[in-house]
UniProtKB/TrEMBL annotation:
Protein's name according to its UniProt entry: Putative nucleic acid-binding protein
Family: Belongs to the PINc/VapC protein family.
Organism: Desulfoprunum benzoelyticum
Domain PIN: 3-113
Domain of life: Bacteria
A molecular function (GO) term: metal ion binding
This protein's UniProt keywords: Hydrolase, Magnesium, Metal-binding, Nuclease, Toxin-antitoxin system
CDD domains listed in its UniProt record: PIN_VapC-like (cd18686)
Record's keyword annotation contains Nuclease: yes
Cofactors demanded by this protein: Mg(2+)
Length: 128
């Protein structure tokens, strides 16, 4: 299973230089899980930059993966992970969701650098 962090979705939708890193994972929706917090983060950004129609289109694409809601078990594990690794709230939820589903996290977020089961790529100056 795979999980693309919110930053990866934004790179993909912007067709940035890093979009090619995320595209194979996003487009193989049979192995893709999508935490609801990623939908929130991505749609909020797209809504503010491009409007409601674009945000709804983005949400539709994200729903092609297996959407995973934040439940009590993931929340408790996210609290532990966040405390242990000093991660922000959303990153804690993303990592806890990935671990609950045995998924590899694909990201350019430096908070994840060096963590187990993370496919990290360095952010470029031309990234979103």
């Amino acid at each position: 299973m795979n999980l693309v962090d919110s930053c990866g979705w934004l790179e993909y939708f912007a067709d940035s230089p890093l979009a090619d890193f995320y595209a194979p994972v996003i487009e193989d929706n049979g192995t893709l899980i999508v935490p609801t917090i990623c939908i929130l983060e991505v749609c909020k950004r797209v809504l503010s930059q491009r409007g409601e129609e674009a945000a709804l289109q983005v949400a539709a694409v994200m729903h092609q993966g297996q959407v995973v809601p934040l439940d009590a078990d993931i929340a408790l594990n996210a609290a532990k992970i966040g405390s242990l690794w000093k991660l922000p709230l959303a990153d804690s939820v993303i990592l806890a969701t990935a671990r609950a589903h045995g998924a590899l996290v694909w990201t350019q977020d430096a908070h994840f650098k060096g963590l187990e089961n993370v496919q990290y790529i360095e952010k470029t100056n031309r990234s979103v």
